[in-house]
Every structure is written in C-alpha cells, then in structure tokens.
Here is the input.
Amino acid sequence: MSTSRRTIAAAVAGAAALALIATGCAPAASSGGDDEKITLTLGTFNNFGYSDELLAEYTALHPNITIKQNIAKTSDDAQTNLFTKLAAGSGLSDVEAVDGDWMPKVKQYSDLFVDLASDDNAGRYSDWKTAGGTADGKLIGLGTDIGPEAICYRADLLSAAGLGTTPDEVAANISGDWDAYYAAGEKYTAATGKAWFDSAGATFQGLANQYQNFYEKDDGTVIATENPDVKAAFESVLDASSTLSAHLQEWTDDWAAGMANGSFATMLCPAWMLGVIQGDSPDATDWNIANTFPDGGGNWGGSYLLVPTQGKHTEAAKEFTDWLTAPEQQISAFKNAGTFPSQVAAYDDPALTGAKNEFFNDAPIGTIFADRANAVTVTPFKGINYGAIMGAVQNGLTRVEQGQQSVDDSWTQVVADIKALG
Amino acid sequence: MTTTTLRPPKGPIERSPRRIAFSQKLSRWDIKLSPYLYISPFFILFAVVGLFPLIYTGYISLLDWDPIRHSGKFMGLDNFAWVLGQTQFWLALRNTISIFLLSAVPQLIIALAIAAVLDSNIRAKTFWRMGVLLPYIVMPVAVALIFSKLFSNDYGLINTLLSDIGLPKVGWHTDVIPSQIAIATMVNFRWTGYNALILLAGMQAIPRDLYESAAIDGAGRFRRFFSITIPQLRPTLIFVIITATIGGLQIFDEPQLFDSSSTVAGGASQQWLTLTVYLHNVGWYQNGKYGRAAAIAWLLFLLIVVIGLINLAITRRIANNDARRNR
Here is the structure.
C-alpha cells in the first residue's frame, strides 16, 4: 500500500525530533569525573602570589582542570562581593579568599561553605590559625598566609639622614618601642624635612594588632569606645603624624605614587605588603627590609581560602584548595609576592629559610619574617563588627590628617559613629 | 370573472431573530481590548522588575533583615527613625542635592550649546553627532578610575598642571566643593553628549520657516536661538530636566570609586557621600543592616517623587502660561 506524502512527512519529522532529543540528553555528568573538562574559578584580592605559572602547575597535575583567577583590587571590594553573592545564592568563585579581618563575619554563615578538613591538611597549621578557619566545629577556611610585620624602608632616603643603609644598621637605629620609632622619625624629618611614614591610618593598624581585645571582647561585645588603649593609640599616632606623616592614605593613587616618588622613608610592612610595594613602585631600587618592629612584633592580616557550597564543582574545588594551601605552594607564593606561609611545616623548609627577595635588594625575607612571626605575642580577637569599627576609626584619623578636625573633635565623632553601628 | 389578488394580512412583518456571529463578537472585543494588550508588555515588565522590588524593599525596611538568611524580626518604623537621626544621612542629602545641581545645570547648558552647533550646517554631521556620544559609551567605572587619578591631591595631573602655572593645589580629595566639582565633572563627561543628542532631536523638529521668517524680520543668530529654539524646545527640555533630575539624585558609580582608600566610601567627613553610596555603606559595610538600607532606599524614592512633582507643577505652570498667551 502506498504511504501518502503526509504520512512520510510526519514520520520524518518524528524521527528528527527524536534524534534531537536524544542528542540533547547527555548522560548525567559524573561527579568530578576525571575526563570532565572543568574550569575552577579562584577569587582573591591584592596579591596572593598565585602567579599563572603556579596555577598552571595544578593543571599539569590534573590536565582536565584549568584555573581562572579573579583578583579584586582591595580586601573591602572582595568583602562586598562575597556577601552580595552569598545573599544572591550564586555568582561566587569556586574558591574564595577571605581576609582574616572579616572572617568572623563569614563564620556566621558557616553552613554555606564546604567542610575542608581532610587527612592531608590535619596538623598543617598552628592552633590559632586552625581556630581562625573553624566555625561550629567545621573547618571552612584553610589558611593561606599570615602577616608578620617588619619595617620596610628606602635606603637612599635614610642614608641622607645618617640612619644607616643596611638592614642591620637601620634595625639598630629604630628598634625599640613605638616611641623609639617616632624618635628616629623625628631625627629623619629634622635632617631632611621629609615624611617618615605614609599615614596615621597605616601606622595605627600596626598598633591595633598588638592588643588582644582592642575593639571587642572575646564574646563580641563592642568596647572600642570605652577601651582606654584605643583612645591612647589614636592620640599618640596623630601626635606623631603631625610631623612625621606623608598624609597619604593607604590604597589611594597618591599613596602608590608616593611609594614610587619616595614621599616617605619607612612604612609598616606585613609580609603581603612586599608584593604591593613592588607593584606600585617597580622602578625603585632602594627598598629594603629591616628585621625589627616597634614593641617586638605584630601580625596584620592573613587570609583563608573557602569553598562556597553554591559552586558547581565543590569536590574538585576542595581538592584544589588543599593543594594550593600546602606548604610547597605557599612557599612559591611567598617567593612571588612575599605572602608568608601560615603552614608550620614551611618554617623548616630550606626554601623558606634561605629565601631572598631580589626587588628588596636580596633581603633575606625567609629569616626576617620568621623572626617577626616568632616575635608575635598576641593574637588579636576580631569579631563581626571589627571591620566597621576600624572603618570609623580610620575615617577619624584621616579627618585629622587632612586638617578637617582637631583630634578631640574627631574622636568625639568616631565615638558617635561607632555607637551608630549598633 | 373578476380576479382578486390575495393580499397578505397587514401586520408587523415577522423576521427571524438576528444572530450575532461569534467572529463579530470577537472583533468587538478586539477593538476594545487590543490597545491594552499592546501596551501591557511594558506594564507587566514594570510590575515584575520595578513595582515588585519597590514594594518588597518597603517590606524589608520594616524588618531587621538578614540578606543571607532571608528573614528578619519586625521593627516597625525604627529603621526610618534611625536613618533620620543620623548626621551622615543629612550630610548625604546635602551632598546629593549639591552634586546634582553642580552636574545638571552646566550639563544642560553645555548640551544645549552643543545641540545648537550640531544643528547648524557643519561638515561631517554624522561623525560629530556620533562623536558626541562616545563618552556615554565608556563604562562609568573606567571613567571614575581615570578621573580620580587625574584629580589626585598630590600627584594627579590637574594639580601638577596648576602648580606648574603657579596656582595653589586644590584639595580634590579633601575639601567638600572641589571633590563635588570633580565628581560632577565625571557625571557631565558622561551625560552631556547624550542630552545633547536628545535636544538635537527636539531642535530638528522645529519648523524651519520660523527661522526663515525671523531672519527676514532681522533677528540675528542669538536672538533666533533664544526666542525660537528654546521656547520651541520646551517639551524636550522638560523631558531632559526630569530624567537628569531622577538620574542625578541617584549618582553612585562616581562617588563610590572616587577614593579607593580602604575606608568607607564617601570621604572621611562624608564630603562627597551621596544617598545611594550611604545606602550601600549601611547595607553592606555595617554587618548587613539591610533593613536600614531599605529605609534609606524608600526615603530616596520619596525624595525623587517629591522633586518630580515639584518639576511637574513648575512645568505645568509654564505650559499654562504659554497656552494663555497664545490664545
């Protein structure tokens, strides 16, 4: 019997549709299958030292995985990005870097992050760093670096004031407590008429990190407005900065230009600042690092890597994070950007102890920052309001530095601003 | 034999009841309803994208909202009371209005002048008209970053030029008015070309014989501009002023990126803090106080509505004056 043209047309259409559906239905993607090509995104800020070469090493080990790094300009930008996308439920990178300063805020949402504990990273960190990454018994953050502080200086500027040029000479001349640091600054300013440090704000950060409970008590209660240490630090830094500061607020274009132009002779230097200095003043040749810090030592910063549960490849991301925070990789990052390892195994590694930074005139950064890390006696408590309180205080310092208010008026406004946060 | 014609009985002629076809009913509905259907896509989209978020924000402003947990406890009008009691809010209001005036007024004057030039007989008209729109295409973020570098206090290009000429350096990042001028410059850079093209479109709709008859009567170019162009442009000017107002009261990109120091945006003494930047600070920088941010958003909305109504009243009065005069 002859099939009509209508029937043939219908049959062909049906077959075509079936074929289309069949191609559309790929087998369900196997979880982390070795053959599946995936791209993992890594969100960091500033300069973590994760160069393209370092990330390519992981691709060499896992050929199906490519890593793409998104770098935010400042820690604050990364913070707003993280919380916005956490609220939205999507859009975060597979691995997100979180600054230690706002890690407490992130810990409130620990259920939105993957538990990263594994046999590989057990015992990797000192207790306080592990505790920093743990929330509700879950290890949500693997530590990357810590920020032991030294003093970075410009040898050409200091030699003009007779404060020495080699790291040891300079260290001998400025060692001691904060008053000794300021006194050396007075000598410098008297001799050259130029600024000693970059800003009151940056110097204040160094002071703030030397107290256990500067702004908040261990249970989170805000004590910033009543703590006499805060007011004393506020006033002492502003007193020194009236003659010694270059008034260049951190992270501004002027501050970056000031580094290149030699507007200030010294600055507080946590290990991660080395990458920033090199990036902002690539043509300067006289930067060096003195193995000293007012009042011994301090830790400023230090971050963690977290894996948000909203990601599509959480298993692969967890493996990658484990690898990236291993001592060997952190030492590579340290060589790239000076981000000092938080992994205890790294401290014995000859690659670390013998490390030198070429840009900083072959300063032995391994030993310097290991010494400074050992000199840290206090782990400051930072609760969920730390960032906002520090912002208010920094604004207060800036207002005085820019001549808009007297120290007392500015402090009154700082107190009002902090009270308004509640 | 006589024939008699039979006449049908006189009476009302019965007709079968007329049936209205379904297609006729359909076409009647078509005529009544289709205008509404044609304009409904816009309103549906507005309801989803504009009206719903507006109402939801109002709902959030009454709660102490946690954005990540999507829940909050009822606060009544406490959030509004808190916002209205903050000095920063009033400073932000002052800044918003002053930045708006600093940007809208020069912008419109320059846009009017540019449109007048573009309307006259110049060569390569299309090239100039496209060129004037180029600043609008540049991303506001890129503009903000570049301009804030230019306006840097110590090492920026503008201060370096000023000190080379011998003038004192201006505190672009420290003083209130200079920082607002810098931000207004960025806004003007972006929007002048756009407004110029809209005004140009309005100008081209003015009948040419008005100009001709004025020229015959002896009016010079400027007289023609002020007496013909501007009055005839009134509807376009009203549109441009209203959109500039609504946009100007919500300026965010430029103040937010003006100073990349890691303190809260808007300047250490809130020199250039606008209401939207303040909203962002409160919502994102103060441990997620979304309820307060939502309160600020609603207050800003009410402000824009009030200013819009004032605009409307003024323009209606002007239009009425016109109608009375032309009678």
About this structure: Chain A touches chain B through 44 residues (CB under 8 Å). Residues 111 and 212 of chain A are 28 Å apart (CA to CA). The first helix of chain A runs from residue 5 to 24. Confidence is low (pLDDT under 50) at residues 26-33 of chain A.
